[in-house]
Amino acid sequence: MTNTITATTQKQKLLIIEDEGEMCLLINLLLDGKEMEIEHVKTIADAVEYFQQQPPAIVLLDNRLPDGFGLDFILFLKKEYPATKIIMISGMDPAAKDVAIEMGADMFLEKPFTKAQLCQCINELLH
C-alpha cells in the first residue's frame, strides 16, 4: 500500500504551520494511524517558539499566514534548523512552487492534495 508511512521506533515529529483549522483537521485525518507525533501552530511566531523547544523532523508550511508568508519563513528555517525538512503547501499561487524550492523547501504540495501525495512526500523525506 503506497499510503503507508514507515518510521523508526521513535515517533517522528511533524509540525503543521497552518492558520485554517479545517486544513489542519484534514491533514490530521489523512495521517491518522501513522507513527508520527503531529503538532499544529497557526502563526510564524508560534512556530518560532515551538522550534525553540524541540525542532520537528518535518514541517508542513502554508504560505499565507496571519503574521507573514511561509515563503519568507523558509530561509529562517533552513539557516537555523537545517535538519528539518520542509513541505510547502499552497493553493493560491502556482508560481509559489518555484520560489519555495529556490528558497530551500524540500517539497511542494499544491492544495488540494491527496493522502497518497502527502504520504509519499513524508516517506521520501524521512528515508
Automatic annotation (TrEMBL):
<dbReference type="Pfam" id="PF00072">
    <property type="entry name" value="Response_reg"/>
</dbReference>
<protein>
    <submittedName>
        <fullName>Response regulator receiver domain-containing protein</fullName>
    </submittedName>
</protein>
<dbReference type="InterPro" id="IPR050595">
    <property type="entry name" value="Bact_response_regulator"/>
</dbReference>
<dbReference type="GO" id="GO:0000160">
    <property type="term" value="P:phosphorelay signal transduction system"/>
</dbReference>
<feature type="modified residue" description="4-aspartylphosphate">
    <location>
        <position position="62"/>
    </location>
</feature>
<feature type="domain" description="Response regulatory">
    <location>
        <begin position="13"/>
        <end position="126"/>
    </location>
</feature>
<keyword id="KW-0597">Phosphoprotein</keyword>
<dbReference type="InterPro" id="IPR001789">
    <property type="entry name" value="Sig_transdc_resp-reg_receiver"/>
</dbReference>
<dbReference type="InterPro" id="IPR011006">
    <property type="entry name" value="CheY-like_superfamily"/>
</dbReference>
